[in-house]
Amino acid sequence: MDKFYIITNTAKDKNLEITGEIEKYLKERGKQCQVRQAERKQEGSYHYTNPDLIPEGTQCILVLGGDGTLLQAARDVVHREIPMLGMNLGTLGFLAEVDRNSVFSALDQLISDDYEIEERMMLTGSVYRDGRIIGRDVALNDIVISREGSLRVVRFKNYVNNEYLNSYNADGIIIATPTGSTGYSLSCGGPIVSPNASMMLMTPVAPHTLNSRSIIFPEGDVITVELGEGRRQDKERGLASFDGDTVIPMVTGDKIVIQKASVSSRILKLNHLSFVEVLRQKMGNN
């Protein structure tokens, strides 16, 4: 690889010290490198990183921060189809493979073309109100439909391929990708799925029933979640959250239609470890 683009989270690298060291390291070896700080944008076609500013011919996007920064970047630049490598400057994560101690050895691997590329499935979600789309976004980890405001139980009505499946009285519903199976879904009792699989997981959040479990659906299914009424049959307000970041407000009667996105994220893998080995290390089992 010869042409790099760095997306850096200044909250994790406040003085851009590590960013500057990486940029210098690459340029000293004759490589092209541009740096862009990830900054929240309130409106527009992207959230943090303008994909149009990435130079043509860029071969690798280095994302400095953590899993959250990588998720943000993935959603913004996915249509550019450029492989990304997460460099973890924060707490332990599943997505950002490289830590502070292995930054320069990772760069050497990239320069010598010693890597693999994993295609990661993404989701697209479209929110409908009275038959009209009011919002749409994509997610690499998950789309979460939840109530807004004070703690109370809301009814969520679930459909698969336009066929009624079930209803949950719960705090929310998580629709996750295999990549997202190690995130919020896992903390709510969902299964861990190999990230290179292609399927969708439905996991209720704090369901008020004794027999609720995650349900796994094939990649071709279309899942619809309707925000139902509250406990007192009153109108509720909810949120559709994409990768725990951007949200689309919902009210009782609104529906969100979720399916596999037509695009996928390309994640660089350097360690050549199997998913089983990575999982064993993350779980701390020796």
Summarize the structure.
With 286 residues, the protein is of the alpha+beta class.
What does this structure look like?
The chain is an alpha+beta fold and 286 residues long. It is 16% helix and 42% strand. The protein contains five helices and 17 strands. The strands form three sheets. The protein has a six-stranded antiparallel sheet. Strand 6 (116-129) and strand 7 (132-139) form a beta hairpin. The protein starts with a strand and ends with a helix. The model has no long low-confidence stretch (mean pLDDT 89).
List the helices and strands and how they pair.
Layout lengths: L2 E6 L8 H12 L3 E6 L22 E6 L1 H11 L6 E5 L9 E2 L3 H9 L4 E14 L2 E8 L2 E6 L6 E7 L2 E8 L1 E5 L7 H4 L11 E7 L9 E4 L4 E8 L6 E6 L3 E6 L3 E15 L5 H9 L3
Parallel strand pairs: 1-2, 1-3, 3-4, 4-5
Antiparallel strand pairs: 6-7, 6-17, 8-11, 8-15, 9-10, 9-14, 11-12, 12-13, 14-17, 15-16
| Nearest-integer average pLDDT | 89
Main sheet makeup: 6 strands, antiparallel
Q: Tell me, what's the shape?
A: elongated
Given the helix and strand composition, which structural class is it? alpha+beta
Helix content range: 10-25%
Number of helices: 5
Number of strands: 17
Radius of gyration: 20 Å
Distance between the termini: 35 Å
Strand content: 35-45%
In sequence order, what are the helices and strands, one letter per element? EHEEHEEHEEEEEEHEEEEEEH
Low-confidence residue ranges: none
